């Protein structure tokens, strides 16, 4: 009878360990997914713009990219149904993998007023094995304390 009791306690401990690891894994998964989706909680408009293009070109996540656009621009983005179509038709840029950086050359990188900013971004990446560089300027506005992309500005060059 004592052997059965010890065996039952051992099984119970194993089940508790399994539940503990399962709970830990689910918690980590939940928090890691949540952080990837929370672009709108970034305070800096440059970082929001970079996160938008990173979601579009590197993560291939159209919904995440649209989550930081004003409703009009989000409707345009979501209309195309795929990140490749948005990249080709809206931004006229295609990349397999790209690095995006805001302008940081000591000149004014952002023309920011109370609730708006014009952000210049540099793109350096590869498409079909060829290196491609580009520059885009976007308009960001602040809505309810969150920075969102308003529109693509005219090519500065």
Short description:
This protein is of the alpha+beta class. The chain has helices at 2-37, 45-57, 62-66, 71-79, 83-89; strands spanning 97-102, 110-112, 116-127, 130-143, 146-152.
Structure report:
- The chain is an alpha+beta fold and 157 residues long.
- The protein is 45% helix and 27% strand.
- Strand 2 (110-112) and strand 3 (116-127) form a beta hairpin.
- The protein has two domains: 1-37; 41-152, Nuclear Transport Factor 2, Chain: A (Roll), CATH 3.10.450.50.
- It has helices spanning 2-37, 45-57, 62-66, 71-79, 83-89, and strands at residues 97-102, 110-112, 116-127, 130-143, 146-152.
- The relative contact order is 0.13.
- The longest helix is centred in the first third of the chain and has 36 residues, at 2-37.
- Strands 1, 2, 3, 4 and 5 form a five-stranded antiparallel beta sheet that branches.
Descriptors:
single chain; 157 residues; alpha+beta; Nuclear Transport Factor 2, Chain: A; 2 domains; five-stranded antiparallel β-sheet; 45% helix; elongated
CATH topology of the largest domain: Nuclear Transport Factor 2, Chain: A
What's the total count of β strands? 5
Q: Helical segment tally?
A: 5
Largest sheet: 5 strands, antiparallel
Low-confidence stretches: 22-37, 106-110
Q: From the coordinates shown, what is the CATH architecture of the largest domain?
A: Roll
What's the domain count? 2
The CATH C-level class name of the largest domain: Alpha Beta
Tell me the span between the first and last alpha carbons: 85 Å
Radius of gyration: 23 Å
Order of helices and strands: HHHHHEEEEE
What portion of residues is helical? 40-55%
Average residue-wise pLDDT: 80
Strand content: 25-35%
Q: Looking at the structure, what is the overall shape?
A: elongated
Structural class: alpha+beta
């Amino acid at each position: 009878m004592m052997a059965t009791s010890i065996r039952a306690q051992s099984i119970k401990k194993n089940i508790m360990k399994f539940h503990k690891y399962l709970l830990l894994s689910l918690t980590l998964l939940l928090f890691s997914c949540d952080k990837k989706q929370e672009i709108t909680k970034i305070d800096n408009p440059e970082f929001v713009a970079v996160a938008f293009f990173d979601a579009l070109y590197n993560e291939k996540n159209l919904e995440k990219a649209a989550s930081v656009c004003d409703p009009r621009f989000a409707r345009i983005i979501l209309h195309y149904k795929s990140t490749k179509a948005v990249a080709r038709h809206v931004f006229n840029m295609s990349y397999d993998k790209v690095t995006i950086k805001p302008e940081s050359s000591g000149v004014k990188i952002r023309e920011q007023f109370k609730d708006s900013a014009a952000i210049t971004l540099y793109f350096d990446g590869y498409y079909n094995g060829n290196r491609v560089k580009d520059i885009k300027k976007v308009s960001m506005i602040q809505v309810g304390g969150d920075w969102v992309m308003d529109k693509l500005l005219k090519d500065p060059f």
